[in-house]
Every structure is written in structure tokens, then in C-alpha cells.
Write a structure and sequence with these properties.
By secondary structure, the chain is an alpha/beta fold. It has helices at 17-32, 46-57, 68-92, 103-113, 118-129, 144-158, 169-185, 199-213, and strands at residues 5-10, 37-40, 96-100, 136-141, 190-194. The structure holds thymidine-5'-phosphate.
Length: 214
């Protein structure tokens, strides 16, 4: 059986990734007749979703803050579960797999923004992936000011504290810079889109690029 195709979505807070992942999933199902496997990070398996809850909502300000190395290892531990329980089996079965955030988020957030050693993070990702390769990374680029406004709107609706969204604007500028540098380093894997375009138009442009790797 043909090996599947692995697509990742990356971008800053409020870039509309989840909407685009959903739209791409629907379009692929309609055009190819086969449902793609949608997953996300942190998360994607029951255990990794538990790590997600800690990573997103642990109250750092009182009690015991998450150490920066613990943060890295929890993201990577969740990734081990997602890669081995969801992504690799689906690819081996010939499916298209779409993951909402993946390894580049670790390098952008824990590396460029959190200032951990970037080479170390890349080596850790290589270790965790153990031979898995990404066929296409869709980067939804957005200035942090615009992403903040969108994330703020969401926060006021859900009212839940989010550790990483609560970081400074400078942190989020570094996240964006990180993603753009990674895209420059691997132009054969990345496609960069302007996340401020209308969602339907963006979805069509993304689908066009995805069609090339199918
Ligand atoms: P989101 O899926 O709602 O965007 O939330 C995930 C958050 O986790 C987001 O703030 C980005 C962050 N993140 C990292 O810092 N490192 C990682 O490796 C991943 C996958 C996500």
C-alpha cells in the first residue's frame, strides 16, 4: 500500500490554524473520497491531551511554576505518543495526516521565544520523530498584534487562563521571527501564507499547495 502524506500547520496565536485544518480536512475528504486523519499538538492522544491541559493551563503564578526544561519535555513526551499511536500508523496505512502544530512550534516557542538552545531542540525533535518526515508545512503568518486581538476575543468568550497566550508581545514577536527563519531554512518543506486574508480564499490557496504533494 502507498505510504501516506504528512502535513503540518504552524503559526502564532490567533492565526486561524484550527479553522484552516478543518476546512482542508473537509475539502480533502470531498475531493479524494478518503477522510484525512486530523490531529494536534500538544495533544492528539488521551495521554498527550492530559499533558496539553498542564502545558496550557497550569497556574505558574502560584504554587510550582513549570520549569522551562519540564515544558520542553512535556511537549516532546506528548509528541512521542502522537507520533507512535496516531501519525505513524496512519501514514503506514496510506492515509493523509494533518497535524495542527508540530516540531516547528517547539523550535519557535521554546527556542526563539523561550531562549532554550535551538540546536538541542532540533536534535530532540529528530530523536522523537525517529525517521518520520513532514511532506509539507503550512505556515500561517500574522503580526503578533493582530493575533493578540483575535486570541483576546477568544479568551473573553471562554474566560480560561492560557500560559503561553499570556506571554509578552516581545515573546510572540520572537515566535513569529522563529517561524519565518525556519521557513527560510527549509523552503522545500514550508509554504508561507498571509493569515489576514479571508478564510475561504486562504483555504483555496492552501488546498492548491496541498494538491501538489498528494
Ligand atoms: P493551540 O493549539 O491552541 O495553539 O495551543 C498550543 C500552545 O502551545 C500554543 O501557545 C503554542 C504552544 N506550543 C509550544 O509552545 N511548543 C510546542 O511544541 C507546541 C506543539 C505548542
Amino acid at each position: 500500500m502507498k505510504h501516506g502524506v504528512f502535513i503540518t500547520f504552524e503559526g502564532p496565536e490567533g492565526s486561524g490554524k484550527s479553522t484552516q485544518v478543518t476546512l482542508l480536512g473537509q475539502k480533502l475528504a470531498a475531493v479524494t473520497g478518503a477522510e484525512p486523519v486530523l490531529t494536534r499538538e500538544p495533544g492528539g492522544t488521551p495521554l498527550a491531551e492530559e499533558f496539553r491541559r498542564i502545558l496550557k493551563h497550569h497556574p505558574d503564578t502560584d504554587g510550582e511554576p513549570i520549569h522551562p526544561i519540564t515544558e520542553i519535555l512535556l511537549f516532546e513526551a506528548g509528541r512521542v505518543q502522537n507520533v507512535n499511536c496516531v501519525i505513524k500508523p496512519a501514514l503506514a496505512a496510506g492515509r493523509v495526516v494533518i497535524c495542527d502544530r508540530f516540531t516547528d512550534s517547539t523550535v519557535a516557542y521554546q527556542g526563539y521565544a523561550r531562549k532554550n538552545n535551538i540546536e538541542m531542540l532540533k536534535r530532540l525533535n529528530t530523536f522523537v520523530l525517529d525517521g518520520l518526515t513532514i511532506n509539507l508545512t503550512v505556515l500561517l503568518d500574522l503580526p503578533p498584534e493582530a493575533g493578540f486581538a483575535r486570541a483576546e476575543k477568544r479568551r473573553s468568550t471562554h474566560g480560561i487562563y492560557d500560559r503561553l497566550e499570556a506571554e509578552t508581545i516581545e515573546f510572540h514577536r520572537n515566535v513569529r521571527r522563529g517561524f519565518l527563519e525556519l521557513a527560510k531554512e527549509s523552503p522545500e518543506r514550508f509554504r508561507v501564507f498571509n493569515a489576514e486574508e479571508p478564510p475561504e480564499q486562504l483555504a483555496e490557496e492552501i488546498f492548491r499547495e496541498v494538491s501538489r504533494v498528494l
